[in-house]
Amino acid sequence: MIAQIEISNNLSAKLRVDGQEKSVPMVELTNILSNMITEDESPWLPNNLIYLRRDGGNVGAVYFFPETKTSYRYYDNSYDVILPPALFFFTLTALKNDKFKIVKMAAALTDSYNMQSSRLYQFPFPNNSLGYGPGFCWGSDRIAKDMYDKQCTLEQLPILYQRFFAAQGNGDLGWKVQGSLEGKEACAKMLKLGKEGWTKQKVEETFCSVSLKKISEALYFDFTR
Fold first, then answer.
1. For residue range 64-92, what is the model confidence (pLDDT) as tens digits?
2. 162: Cα separation from own chain's centroid
3. Pairing label, strands 68-74, 168-169
4. Greater pLDDT, 147 or 32
5. Which residues lie closer than 8 Å to 171 by C-beta, 6 or more apart?
6. Share in percent of the chain as helix, strand, coil (round to 5)
7. pTM score
8. 24-52 core/surface letters (b: 16 or more CB in 10 A; e: else)
9. SS3 75
10. What is the DSSP letter of 179?
């Protein structure tokens, strides 16, 4: 069996296997290759990575996380939520030995896979803001803080998606849900609508929109290219 891979853009690739052609998202391709290639042979292929580009001394990376049912810790309470697909954006400084330093990060919800053509929405929880220096406020979460203060690999960056929901949140930097919903009410709405099934209309009516250009400006990296 002979396989040929053609990267058509930053988000998709064409696979040709035994004369048959199939278009697949880059995140699926990186997962396929991660299973085919050992970590020693290809340390730069983490799961969920859909965009990776160098521009001068900086590197932009974007990770896609599918719709997720999880718990969000808000002060002393924990609430179940069903979250639409999310994108985590990183501006990085490349170091030696496949290591990187986080410059800033951001997150957004998306109504479809392709970040270049889909509508994006602000990550609805507090403790993150495009106007905040590092992007996210991690409080006393030592694991996340160490990833900011020290160097990390591309494989380690998705840990910050997990750490966000494992950490205890508070009201800093504000909620971003339409109708000025916060805390228990905001989480209850995300759980209810998620159980009914997220649609583009429900996402648009629930969350506050944000442009890829605005994210790029806040992170000092052009993710539109």
1. 999 999 999 999 999 999 999 999 999 99
2. 11
3. parallel
4. 147
5. 126, 182, 183
6. 25, 35, 40
7. 0.81
8. eebbebbbbebeeeeeeeeeebbebbbbb
9. coil
10. G
